[in-house]
Design a protein that fits this description.
Helix content of chain A is about 55%, strand content about 10%. Chain A is of the alpha/beta class. In chain A, the strands form two sheets. Chain A has a six-stranded parallel sheet with strand order 3-2-1-4-5-6, with helices on both faces. A three-stranded mixed sheet of chain A has the order 7-8-9. The interface between A and B is large, with 63 and 63 residues.
């Protein structure tokens, strides 16, 4: 499993809201990038910018030194690598797969083992920073990889992310750090909604309360970011869809459950996210939790 | 209940960690301040700075246009005002009482009614910003009072606080805003501990995780402030004792319960704060919640 010293050729699968600008930043930094997506529109855009288009994940993998996935979920990730005509079998020996979606830690650990058995390297590298960070190349990237493999992919990662953290030597370590961040994000978002709705119930001027608490010890990054969307009821189109946090918090709870580890607030928040999902809010902005809090605390709704 | 136009004479009861520097800032701004505390040491210090000492709350009240309380809890507040030889009976007609401790909204509303019946004004004005804010005169002060009474006391409040928010016309409105802030503070503190202990359980470098999440969407003011104390295990002497947040979150839950209003995360956090209290952590720094999370998730403790 020797690693090439020349600038790696990159295969990139999943060029949606996040992946397209990430791939574009690689192209702009003079990487040879071959892209695949089930949606042809962003592929065509990237070809205009000098990327090559592949007709399958396997074709994107064939000549790649580094193969990046930025797909929606675990199932797409596994299909991209392991389904018939798949990428893993097409990759040259010694190539490196970088999984950059937020995924289940268990899936990532199992995939790393399968790829190692095929003579391939794996880098666990989920990101934080959203569409804006992807476009500006200022993502935070949390990387689990051996020192050697990390050194190999670090220049490409720095093209996409301003803060590249080498958080551990093992697959799953990147996802683990991302889980800690998402646990905080999910609880902060839910308690922001809980606090603003309680302020309204107490008869306060909620906008003024928001101004006060964001200038006080009660502030959080999420309160400052999602609070204005909650107050202006800007839920669609979603800037960050609720289903993403439902999925992410599910991964957190699964990982804790697998360890027999209690997460009292994560668990309570998880119930709220599932309520919002069950009530049909999945494709709205995740600031919609304020509407959940209103519904579960207001007598203004009809009784049935 | 006419209000004096001249610079008010001030009575000040409760010159502890918070009250002493607040009273000192009033003295420095040339207010005539008469102070009382059950502890003679800070009173003697303030006398050195040109305050007058009173031998009882009633004596501090006798000539006061404005009577400020910064005592520990509801019971001390009620005793200061209403017990035999009390301040309320000694205050001149038309004087204004300012309650600046964090107290139960119900106590504050009931006290305002009792004072009004005696021909006195009441201002509900809890603060945020801690000992540092009290010393530097940069407290946030959340004020419930009529426009006329607010205008009367605003100059004195601005001597103690940089941000003076007139949040409502009624007694209880200041405490209500403070409750919203404390709900956020308490949940953020508990989930910070939960997240850092889970990071450790996942085998991560907890200091690095702290650095990453405080630079990411998972950050909160409390995480940045209490996180370092959690990691360095700086629990004593307390910078902010746990019993204060146990009390504050109790007020939040009481107020919600009185309205039949659900607070799912506040309630889950409340259980954790009570666990920490019940386990003997009350007089330690409130960052001690990390030790609670460790104890309730670690098999390293003895089995009984």
């Amino acid at each position: 499993m020797t690693l090439s010293n020349t600038k790696p050729r990159i295969g990139f699968v999943g060029v949606g809201v996040m992946g397209k600008p990430m791939a574009l930043n690689l192209v702009k930094a003079d990487y040879a990038v071959t892209v695949f997506d089930i949606n042809p529109a962003p592929v065509a855009e990237l070809v205009q910018a000098d990327a090559r288009a592949a007709r399958s994940p396997a074709e994107a993998a064939r000549d790649a030194d580094v193969f990046i996935t930025m797909v929606v979920n675990d199932a797409q990730f596994l299909a991209t690598l392991f389904e018939p005509g798949n990428a893993a079998a097409a990759l040259p020996a010694g190539a490196t797969v970088i999984g950059m979606s937020t995924m289940s830690r268990a899936t990532v650990i199992e995939t790393a083992d399968r790829l190692h058995a095929l003579g391939l390297h794996f880098v666990d590298a989920p990101v934080s920073g959203g569409e804006v960070g992807a476009q500006s190349g200022t993502l935070s990237i949390m990387v689990g990889a051996s020192d050697e493999v990390f050194a190999h992919v670090e220049p490409a990662l720095r093209t996409m992310g301003q803060r590249v953290y080498h958080v551990g030597k093992n697959a799953g370590d990147g996802q683990a750090v991302k889980m800690i961040n998402q646990l905080l994000v999910c609880v902060h978002n839910a308690v922001a909604a809980e606090a603003l709705v309680f302020a309204d119930k107490l008869g306060l001027d909620v906008q003024q309360v928001f101004d006060i608490v964001t200038n006080s010890a009660g502030n959080s990054w999420i309160l400052g970011n999602r609070g204005p969307r909650m107050l202006s009821r800007s839920f669609t189109p979603p800037k960050s869809a609720l289903h993403i946090l439902i999925k992410d918090l599910g991964f957190v709870m699964d990982a804790a459950d697998a360890l027999g580890h209690p997460l009292p607030l994560g668990s309570a928040a998880h119930q709220l996210y599932k309520m919002a999902g069950a009530m049909g809010m999945k494709n709205l902005d995740d600031s919609i939790l304020i509407a959940l809090q209103e519904r579960i605390s207001s007598s203004r709704d009809a009784l049935i």
